[in-house]
Amino acid sequence: MAAYDLTPQAEAEAEVPEKSWFQSKIIWVNGLTLVAGIIGYLAGHDLIANNTALVAGLVAIQGLVNTGLRFVTYTKIS
Question: Is the pTM of this model over 0.90?
């Protein structure tokens, strides 16, 4: 069994793979959330006010997806 050096210095020196911003699932999820928010705003405040449970559910789902993606992400954005 190999021993791993997990000190902050070793982590800082470790080579981390990079990817471009458009390959980031987190950026895509957040961008789609932004678009949905803008559409909801432009559609009118009544749409949001009349569907509070749906809006709350979507916000919770977006938070879960974002958190899940953070756990599986290990590359830097270049």
Answer: no
Residue 76 and residue 12 in contact, taking contact as beta carbons nearer than 8 Å: no
Q: pLDDT value at position 45? A: 78
Q: Are strands 18-19 and 76-77 parallel, antiparallel or unpaired?
A: parallel
Which residues does residue 34 pair with via DSSP β-bridges, in sequence order? none
Angle at the Cα of 35 (from 31 to 38), degrees rounded to 5?
Answer: 135
Domain contains 2: no
Euclidean distance between the first and the last CA atom of the chain, given in angstroms as a whole number:
34
Residue 60 one-letter amino acid: A
Rounded to 5°, the CA angle 71-72-78 comes to: 105
How many domains is the chain built from? 1
Is residue 55 over pLDDT 70? yes
